Structures are given as C-alpha cells and as structure tokens.
Amino acid sequence: MKKIEATIRPEKLEPVRSALAEMGILGMTITEVIGRGKQRGIALQWRAGEYRVEFLPKLKLEIVVLDEDLSRALNTIVTKARTGERGDGKIFVLPVENAIGIRTGDEGVNAI
Amino acid sequence: MTDAGDTTWILVSSALVMLMTPGLALFYGGMVRHKNLLSTITMSFALLGVIGILWVLYGYSLGFGPDLGGVIGKLDFIGLMGVGQEPSGTYASTVPHLAFMIFQGMFAIITVALWTGGVVERIKFSAFLLFAVLWFTIVYCPVAHWVWGDGGWLAKFGVLDFAGGTVVHVNAGMTALALALLLKPRKGFSEGEPMEPSNIPLVILGAGLLWFGWFGFNAGSALTSGGLASSAFVATNISAAAGAATWMFMGWIYRRPSALGIATGAVAGLVAITPGAGFVHPLAGIPIGIVASITGYYCILWRTKTGIDESLDVWAVHGMGGIWGALATGIFASAAINSGGADGLLWGGGLQFAKQVAGVAAVGAFAFTATWVLGKLVDRTIGLRVKEEEEIVGLDISQHGERAYGGILP
C-alpha cells in the first residue's frame, strides 16, 4: 500500500476526483491548505497600491492505494491537475505500514 | 414651537447617525487581520457606551452650553439640566432641545470612533479608553463649540461647516495621524509583512451602513425637514456616487476595479460633501466627490511610501477629504441655496474661501498638537501599546479574551 499526498489547485479537484472514481479509487481525504513552491505568490489590491500574498490556497488530497494501482493513479492525477503554469502543485508518495477500517475492523489491503 | 415634521426628521436622523458607528466598526474590522477583527470592532462599539454617557453628563454642555470666551460652553446643561421637551431657544428652534442634544451626541460618538482606524492592531484597550475620554473632553467638545456653538470663535469668524467636515473629519483625520506616529508601525509592517484584510464583505457592509446613515448626518444637519434637508440629502448621494465611481476607475487605471477601492471611494465622497452639503448646489457633489477620491487615492499611495503606519488611512480619507470638502465649500457655496450660508469663490466670495482655509488650519493644528500631548501623557503613564507577545497573539485574545470566529469543532 502507498499513500499519495497530492497538493493541487482547488479548481482541479473535480476533474481529479471523477477520473480517479472511473478507475475505482473512491476514498480520499481533502484538506484546505496554503502553500508555495518556487513562485513568488501573487499581488492583491489594497485600497490604493497592492500587497503580496506569499502563500496561495491549495487542496491537499490524501489517497491510499494498492501498489498495483499506484502508477495509474499518479498518472491520472498528474494529467488531470496539470495546467502547465506555475502553481500546479506537487505529489509525494509514502509507504503505508497498515490500514484499519474503523467500522469493520478490517486490516491491511482489505481496509482500503 | 416644536414642529412635528422637523422633530420626526431629527429623531430619525439621530438613529441613522447612531447606526454609522457600528457601520464604521465593520468597515474598519474587515480591513484588519483575523486576529484583530474583534478588537477593531470593539473600539467603536465600546464608544457607543462610554461617550453615550459622557455626552449627556457634561459633553453636550461643553459643546453647546452658553458661550465662554468663544472657546467652550459653560456647564449650564450639565446632566441635561434645562434640556427638555421644549426647543432650546438657541439651536434648532422647531425641535425639542432633547432631540437636538441627542442628534449632536451621535456625532460625538462617531468622531471619536473615526480615528480608531489609525491605531488598530496595536493599541492597548485601556489606553485607548483613557485617551478617548481625554480627547473627547479636551478636543472634541471644544472644537464642536468653536464651529457649531453659539458664540464659538470659528462660527463668529464665519467658517461654514454644515455637518462636520472640519469638526468631525479634519479633526479625526489629524488625530489618527498624530496617534499613529506616536504608536509607531505595527510589528512586521516596516518589513513588508502582508497585512491582509480579514473580510472585505464586512467592509462593504460597513460602507453601506455608513452611506445609509450619512443621510441623517448631512440632511439631518439642516435641523428641519424641508427643502434644505432634501438638497443636502441629494448632494450627499451624488458625492458618494461620484467618489465610489472615481475610486473604481483609479484602481482600474493601475490594475483592477477593486471592491475595497469602491467602498473607500464612497466614504471619501461622503466625507468631502459633509461640510458643504447644505451650502452647495447638489450637483457640486460631482466635482467634490471626484476630487475627494483622487486626493484620497494618491494620499494613501504617498502615505504607504513614507512608511507611516496610519493603518486604515483615516488621515488620507477623512483628514484630506475633510480639508478638500471644507475648501470646496468655500468654492461652491451659494447663498441662493442656503441664505444662512455665503457665496464661495465661484460666486465671487473670495473671503469665504480664506475663512475656510483658516478654519481647517486652526482645527487641524489643534487636533494634531493636542493629540500629541495627550497621547504622550497616556504613553508615559499607562503605556499606549500592547506588549510584543500580545501583539503577536492578536488583540482579540490578549485584550478581550475572545475570538471573532469559533474553532473547527462542531
């Protein structure tokens, strides 16, 4: 099992979610986050003049998948979340030790 | 003899002006960071309580009591003594003295609230209250007497101020500037840390309530319900509209037509028409509103460059807007609109323009100097500013033990 932590543009949630659902990946946890990569943030308007905001709103998706689904899932997220502009986000992949379903008590791959 | 129509209008106007103070609270509150949203709102709202009492106890008498040397009112009306259901005999001869008194009281409250925009996010609440009481007593009440009191020296000199361009806006604007200089910038301001407005819809709501209440402020200042009130009402709306539209285009020229800018422009237009609302033709509201927004816009840009943290630009919008409005009264005023007024520059009244300049200079200089002295006094005794860690945590928690929004728990 692998955990995908994908930070994406908020408006790309729906394309990513529906494409993952088509391949049978339904479960995910979404967090509203702010962050930045190498770009300088954006300028917003004050009453006169402007100020810079370094951190921009993004969504962080946490999805745990089976090892055999990993590359397809990553490919789907990258394809659907990309605009080609700076600020498209990042994906990190982490190994998962175990998983437990709270209602069923199922463990491991049965829990996801 | 009291007149039913006039009395109704002054009571309604008093209620309208009352609503401006919570309106101002939202207008300012939305412009500060989340952690100081409540503290900013609370300063204005607390004044509804404190000044509301001080005004009836002694403030009204200092402002409008029988004249003492042109500078202050005597204590004849202390504790509302002699202020009853009959007209006063001096002011507003067709409305009960009580109605006139409470109408003026609402002006006192919002004027004190106005300069809080200069001190947000760093003033200690106790110091704010102490300074507010001192300032109300030593600055506001005398200045109101000078300009509006029977026998006040600026009134006798012939300064025209229909609804408070000088008494309210120049006064509050110069006070905010002096206090901001005394308090020094907010932590992080000089390093360019972003000070993001917490809630622009609140700013818009506040500006809307101010615009609404301003009809009472300006048209109520006719102190009658007839043609003059109507003229001032229309002039007020025209100038607010011109100010809002102008600021929108100013923002557009440089970047985008911002909501914050349109709201600010409306307030700038309202400020500038205030002194002349009942002296100028309503259409003079167009140039008055346009110039107020252009002035305010560039004053904010300039103020930002200087590194002065007069945080919510009370000086730029109210101070400079009030100065422009007072001068504009000296340009556009016409005795044909209000026989109690005078002819401005446009109608050959050069002398009136000079009087307006003198009035603005006297009140501006007094407000700045007195604020500097009183502010220093408060700073040396109890300290004006919160501790650094209190500022970092935010004034909502450190001064009031509250937060504007609940946590994430259901």
Tell me about this structure.
The complex is a heterodimer of chains A (112) and B (410). Chain A has 112 residues and is of the alpha+beta class. Chain A has a single domain, classed as Alpha-Beta Plaits, CATH 3.30.70.120. Chain A is 20% helix and 35% strand. Chain A has 2 helices and 6 strands, in the order βαββββαβ. Chain A has helices spanning 13-22, 70-81; strands at residues 2-8, 29-35, 42-45, 50-53, 56-65, 89-95. A 4-stranded antiparallel sheet of chain A has the order 2-5-1-6, covered by helices on one side. In chain A, a hairpin with a 4-residue loop joins strand 3 (42-45) and strand 4 (50-53). In chain A, helix 1 (13-22) runs antiparallel to helix 2 (70-81). Chain A is elongated, with a radius of gyration of 17 Å. In chain A, 16% of the residues are buried. Chain B has 410 residues and is an all-alpha fold. Chain B has a single domain (4-400), classed as Ammonium transporter AmtB like domains (Ammonium transporter fold), CATH 1.10.3430. Chain B has a two-stranded antiparallel sheet. In chain B, 60% of the residues are buried. The model of chain B has no long low-confidence stretch (mean pLDDT 97). The A-B interface holds A 44-54 and B 192, 194-196, 247, 250-251, 254-256, 258, 260-261, 264, 296-298, 300-301, 304, 313.
